[in-house]
Design goal:
It is a single chain. The chain has 15 helices and 15 strands. It is an alpha/beta fold and about 400 residues long. It has one domain: TIM Barrel (Alpha-Beta Barrel), CATH 3.20.20. An eight-stranded parallel β-barrel has the order 2-3-4-5-6-8-11-12, surrounded by six helices. A three-stranded mixed β-sheet has the order 7-9-10, covered by helices on one side. β11, α14 and β12 form a beta-alpha-beta unit. α8 runs parallel beside α11.
């Protein structure tokens, strides 16, 4: 007869074909994405943007080196993005050279034994798309679907997983901030997502999914949702449920017919009777100011599974901004324990993709370092951190340690 202690000590095997790797976003690593809305924001004198992205990690040119490092470390999967602003820099003008560039990345990944998971939209849109009103403008969804159809040569073969839109719930929150101004940002927590943006994104996702299936029915299509791990204080359960409903569950419910849904988790949000409450003064914080809370991943997986039902889950982002790599290993150890417990309890998790491969541009600043690989800002020299080898070795072992709780 086994005991709880025995169960806690028993490693949990990873399912066959489990995705194990790292994620990136095109704008954050490529550099000089001059036709995007974010490039315009970075150079528009907005006080909340501390510095421009500039060359970023120059991964647009150095992607072969990045793939070499990922494969040599022993990872098997790479999530990277296609930049719409490069594909369609002006309305209706499509760059064959950029389509070929991203196809070379797919081929390069396959040649190195890496399975690509492709993100079609990761926060940034072409500048012209934003200027005409963004996602809520007339015909916006049609334009996104046209872009998806145009990039068919990139994904038609050798691509098993495609993410249509990264964190649509955050994009809808950005929409609310654009409508109301930065003053709409509460001191703690996130504002209510813009309803029209929410509707447009859900429509764009469903229509893009159909367009991708027309390109190849073998592609597994999903999108990723940012999970805030809302934890109610006693008596605040209804308040937390309302926050969760508008900021997460609407987007998860829209994925119930998908092939998979991406879980993105970093920390928790505690909810009191009046809404989110500040992080405790004595709590450890990361370079983003978030609470160090590795258990968030396990809780996010369980909540997502409860909402979407039998749809498989992929952890498309999980990580920590820190300049102390021992804390990265400690955080990820705790997060993986939560993943192991979820697997042991029968939750259908198909992959873990760490955020992020490279230290990169974190939407206004280079200070938060999430990467498994350090990047010198002057020379672009890549230096794997101890956490990179450690995490690769965990995947190679074929199982995850499990702890109680």
């Amino acid at each position: 007869m086994s005991t709880d202690a025995d169960d806690a000590a028993t490693p949990v095997p990873l399912p066959d074909g489990f995705l194990w790797g790292a994620s990136t976003a095109a704008h954050q690593i490529e550099g000089n994405n001059v036709n995007s809305d974010w490039w315009a924001l970075e150079h528009g004198g907005h006080g909340h943007i501390g510095e421009p992205s500039g060359d970023a990690a120059d991964s647009y040119h150095r992607w072969p080196e990045d793939l070499d490092l990922l494969a040599e470390l022993g990872f098997t999967d790479y999530r990277f993005g296609i930049e719409w602003a490069r594909i369609e820099p002006a309305p209706g003008e499509f760059s064959r050279a950029e389509i070929a560039h991203y196809r070379r990345m797919v081929d390069g990944a396959i040649e190195r034994g890496l399975r690509p998971l492709i993100t079609l939209n990761h926060f940034t849109v072409p500048r012209w798309f934003a200027e005409r009103g963004g996602w809520t403008a007339a015909g916006a969804v049609d334009l996104f679907v046209r872009y998806v159809e145009v990039i068919a040569p990139i994904i038609a073969t050798d691509v098993r997983h495609v993410c249509t839109i990264n964190e649509p719930n955050m994009v809808a929150i950005f929409g609310a901030i654009r409508q109301l101004g930065m003053d709409a940002m509460p001191s703690v927590g996130l504002p209510e997502p813009d309803a029209d943006t929410t509707d447009a994104l859900i429509s764009a996702h469903h229509r893009a999914r159909a367009a991708i299936k027309a390109i190849s029915p073998d592609i597994r299509v999903g999108w990723s949702v940012a999970n805030q791990v809302y934890q109610p204080l006693p008596g605040a359960e209804a308040v937390a449920a309302a926050y969760r409903r508008s900021r997460e569950d609407v987007f998860l419910e829209a994925a119930r017919d998908d092939d998979w849904v991406g879980v993105q988790s970093y920390t928790r949000t505690r909810i009191g009777p009046d809404g989110p409450i500040p992080t405790a003064e004595d709590a450890e914080r990361t370079l983003t100011g978030w609470e160090f809370y590795p258990r968030a991943l396990g809780e996010a997986l369980r909540h997502t599974a409860a909402v979407v039902g039998p749809v498989p889950l992929i952890v498309t982002e999980n990580g920590i901004a820190t300049d102390d790599d021992t804390r990265r290993i400690a955080y990820t150890t705790g997060a993986l324990a939560g993943l192991a417990a979820a697997l042991a309890d029968g939750i259908d998790v198909r992959g873990y993709l760490h955020w992020t491969l490279l230290d990169n541009y974190e939407w206004g600043s280079y200070r938060p370092t999430f990467g498994l690989i350090a990047v010198d800002r002057q020379t672009f020299t890549r230096t794997p951190k101890p956490s990179a080898k450690w995490l690769a070795d965990v995947g190679r072992s074929g199982s995850l340690p499990r702890t109680r709780g």
